[in-house]
Amino acid sequence: MALAAFLVVASAPAVQVPDWAVVVAQTATVDGADEKHKREIQDDIKLGQETSAQVEKELPVSENAEYVQKALKIGDELSAIANRKQVKVTWGDPRLSSYPYHFQVLKGDDVNAFSLPGGYIYIYEGVFKFAESDDEIAGVIAHEISHAAFRHIATLRREQSKFDLINIPLIIAAILSKSTEAAQIMTGGQLLNQAVFSGWSVKAEEAADYGGLQYMLSSKYNPVGMLTFMERLAFRDRGQPKFDYGIYQTHPPSAERAKALMQKLQEAHVPIKRSAVSTSMSSKVLPGENGTVELWFGKSKLYLFGGSDALTRADAASAALDGFFDSVPAIYDAVIEGTKLVGKDQMLIDVSSDDGPEAQKSLEGALATIKRLLFDLNYRLWQNPDR
To answer: What is the pTM of this model?
Structure first.
């Protein structure tokens, strides 16, 4: 499933617009824009307003108040940045285009989101279920905001002027409705248009990834969340059936996008600390029985600390483990030296007599678990696909 789909409907009929999507065109601010640019933005808003009503007919909105409030909160914060911050645009309209953004959550477990012209952003419930932090959700929303801010639909329409433009909206509308007609539409004489559309989508996805990253760099959200979200998508996709989509390839593979994001993060001097944005790649300390303290990494229990200083020792081990895993170490980097579990010459866990008579055996079990987790870590990350 692509992270984003981009929709446009030709000659959408005038219909009742849902309350959440009501847009007063005059609310769009375009400081310093010329009159032509202002008209283009108002056209985007009008098209998005009409198309959003079509979306409401096809796709039911979520009733999950937590997801909706989270989408609104994160979306409002990031769209305010997009409306005032000029960023580098690798594909699309490079001018600063401001919109009255609207965010809605749709029912369904698809790990997917899409953007309509004029700032209408839709996120499936599956994104919130799949994400492990607000930073990861922000990465998805920032990506979709970039599609609207960079006027990608308008750019597509302009670049496709020499082809049969009507076919492209029909293709996208069919995909949106999940209609059985979608496959029939993408056949025969329309292969040329689909091939061109696919090329556009690859460029648009890459541009939106970079744009979203730039917006997040100006926000309180950690842009590494974009990376961890994409890495897990890539890991999940490895288990899916392999198809040669050919001209139906509408977005870059998740692994390629993760690699590009990593490069941009490094260029921006952002520390790659996955533990800060991903629960599956970080440790946690939990209370155990009889005053003991448990140390976990992801969903795996590692060690049980005892004694009056159990919590202090567990917290220190948790911080050390996060730093160790954030460095993406090799399996052989974790070893036992006497009563200590060490990673890259740094102590991770130190056995105490207060931890019980089986503490040393428990430490050996912790090492075995850590080695398994390191194997999984290196396998799942794009940068170590052959390990």
So the answer is: 0.84
